[in-house]
Amino acid sequence: MYGKGKLRLGVNIDHVATVRNARGSSYPDPVRAAKLAEDAGADGITAHLREDRRHISDRDIERLTSALDLPLNFEMAATAEMRDIALRHRPHAVCIVPEKREEKTTEGGLDVMREESGLADYIAPLREVGCRISIFAAADRRQIEAVKRIGAEVVELHTGAYCDAHHEGRESDRKRELENLRHISAYAHSIGLEVHAGHGLTYDTVMPVAAFPEVMELNIGHFLIGEAIYLGLVAAIAKMRRLMDEARGPAH
């Protein structure tokens, strides 16, 4: 039995900016990509403003905030600078993620247990101005409980281990990781968190996760930008949207 309502797709447009920045030019434009994503069936746009500004820039955030009709999910590290930017722009949602300068992409979920008291204080001003707070976390029961305790409304489950196992052909690991995601999705929902998921999802891996009735949103970026080279961005996103809808089935 599938859950009620449409499963939302958030499209991460970071790597449009990566391509732009490789040449130091003004194109391709991530804001244009965001508008195309809207035409293709996306329900929201995700952008990660990193401390080193390796892809999305401050100007991109300003333009996205003013140009988008869709909700903006602002990914950021838990730093004073990033909180000030979020408080200035007041995006629909703020997703707190771990961040290391040397990493190629976000590795693993935030250690909410270790930083619990600090995170609770950190997100309080963001909640006061109306931002929905999401925490990017591993599919671990203790971390999920900590997300709930700090007052976040949403947990975004890290799907990277499941996707890596699939693409590396480690079938037993794939099954184990998928079952853990299923279990933790249900548990997070049961304690009152809205459940999102993302990281590494592709056409080959999205449907089992999309079928979880507790998951309300998937955030997908790098794969879609890569597929856009072959299919075009609108077609790449539309195909992902179709697979998600097929996995979820009709609303009840």
Number of helices: 11
End-to-end separation in angstroms reads 9 Å
Rg (CA only): 17 Å
Element-by-element helix/strand order: EHHEHEHEHEHEHHEHEHH
Low-confidence stretches: none
Which structural category fits the helices and strands? Answer: alpha/beta
How many beta strands in the DSSP annotation? 8
Average pLDDT number: 94
Write down the overall geometry: globular
| Strand residue percentage | 15-25%
Main beta sheet: 8 strands, parallel, barrel
Helix content: 40-55%
User: Taking strands numbered 1, 2, ... along the chain, how are they ordered across the largest sheet?
Assistant: 1-2-3-4-5-6-7-8
Element layout with pairings:
Layout: E1 8-12, H1 14-23, H2 30-40, E2 44-48, H3 58-67, E3 72-76, H4 80-89, E4 93-96, H5 116-128, E5 132-137, H6 141-150, E6 154-158, H7 160-167, H8 171-190, E7 194-198, H9 206-210, E8 215-220, H10 222-231, H11 233-248
Parallel strand pairs: 1-2, 1-8, 2-3, 3-4, 4-5, 5-6, 6-7, 7-8
Summarize the structure in words.
The chain contains 11 helices and 8 strands. Strands 1-2-3-4-5-6-7-8 form an 8-stranded parallel beta barrel, surrounded by 8 helices. Helix 6 (141-150) links the parallel strand 5 (132-137) and strand 6 (154-158). The radius of gyration is 17 Å and the shape is globular. Helix 2 (30-40) runs parallel beside helix 3 (58-67), helix 5 (116-128) packs across helix 6 (141-150) and helix 10 crosses helix 11. By secondary structure, the chain is α/β, with parallel strands linked by helices.
